Structure formats: structure tokens, C-alpha cells
Amino acid sequence: MTVDHVAHVRGLNLHYRETGPTDGPALVAVHGHPGRAHIWDATAAALEGFHVFALTQRGYGDSDRPGRYGFPIWRDDVFGFADALGLDEFVLLGHSMGGTVSALAAEQHPERLRALILEDTVPPKQGLKLPAPERPEEEPPYDWDVLPAVFDAISAPDPAWWHDLARITTPTLVLAGGATSHVPQDLLAEAAALMPGARLVTLEGAGHTPHRDAPERFLAEVRGFLADLGIMPAQRQ
Predict the structure, then answer these.
(1) Nearest C-alpha neighbor of 32 from the set 106, 142, 126
(2) Could you give the CA distance from residue 38 to residue 35 in angstroms, rounded to a whole number?
(3) SS3 of 142, please?
(4) pTM for this model (two decimals)
(5) End-to-end CA, the chain
(6) Which among 1, 9, 122, 194 would be 20 to 30 A from 161, CA to CA?
(7) Domains of the chain with bracketed CATH
(8) DSSP string, 185-209
(9) Distance CA 56, CA 16 (A)
(10) What is the pLDDT of residues 32-85, one digit of tens each?
């Protein structure tokens, strides 16, 4: 059963969806752009026995839209969210933009994380010039002001984000989507090599969203990785 909640985090109301038994291993899942907590529904349901908290980041979905955004802000929201829920240690899973947020969180406080799972993403290494999208006629399901924060970070990333990958001592699984992903796969491999405890697995043909487009393979890798670390739910009678 999945239940919607609101957490009070750093002066904001952030929406999240909670799935699984309260005595299961805690797992916080962070969506990418332009998602929200709901993108993890099928994943959370399939991770039986885990206590999954899917966060809707500020500026998206039903979370507050304060107008202040940026990867360091979203990073700090992750720990503010965990603190609000009383999670001292947890598994952190992030997709795309949410994976970048998760990597920055792991750089800052690797001791808070039992494991880190990055889905087809790492922090930007060098500036990329991407055309800014035109605003649609219909209001999107997010604050349009998040886009400058994302595009500014892509075009002029903080060099420390890449350099500090070496600080991620948390056991890490980097899941790459293969040649059909728009993310440079050699960049994922390079980033994984910088993280002392990282494992790189390529799900060829899965593209940029393996949890949605190759769920069985995605879940098999996630379960196997966590099992190897001894992070497994208690057996249910």
C-alpha cells in the first residue's frame, strides 16, 4: 500500500509517497526532471519488504514552489527530508537529475547512507551548451523557474561536484542505460572509477529510464546489489 504524506523540510512542505513495512530497510528515492514521487510507484511496490520514501523535490508536483532552486539546495533537502522522518541511515536511489542530487548528497555525508544507487546519471563534469526549451502554452507540472537552475548547472557546473566523487565511500551502484541513453556512457564509467566503492552495470538497450523501460533487469541489479551488502528485508510469515 502506498500513502501520500507531506513532510515539513527547511520551511517548506514537501510531498512524498510511502510504501512498505515500517520495520523494513529505509530507502529514499529521488526523481529526475520533470518527474515527481509517483514515478517510483512500480519500483517501490516491487521492492517488497523495503520501507520506501519517494520524495517530490521542491518545485515539482505537489511540493512547494518557493522559486529558489539549485543542486546544492535540492541536495540539502534530501538530508532535511531524512531528518524530518527520523532516518539516521538509509539507502539513496536517484534517477537522472535526482541522481545528480543523490551523488552530491553522498559526497557531503557518505556516513549517512547505507548504499547509493545512481540510475543513468552522474554530476556534470564540464559545461555543455544545451538549447533552453520554450515554455509550453499549458502550465507544466513543475515550477518553470527550476529550468534555469538545471541548465545553469549543466552549462557551468561546480568543478567540486566531479572532483568530490572520490569522497563517496558509500557502496555505490551506477546503472547505465547503454547506447540508447542520451547520457555519455563513458562519463558514467569514468565517474564510477573515481568512487572507491562503486560498481558499474550497463543495462544495454534500457535507455535513460531503466526503472521504467527495463524494470525486471533494473530490479534484479538493485536487489542483488543490496543483498551483497546484507541489506535485505526480514522474511515475512
Answers:
(1) 142
(2) 8
(3) strand
(4) 0.96
(5) 18
(6) 9
(7) 2-133+140-228 (3.40.50.1820)
(8) HHHHHHHHHHSTTEEEEE-TT-TT-
(9) 6
(10) 999 999 999 999 999 999 999 999 999 999 999 999 999 999 999 999 999 999
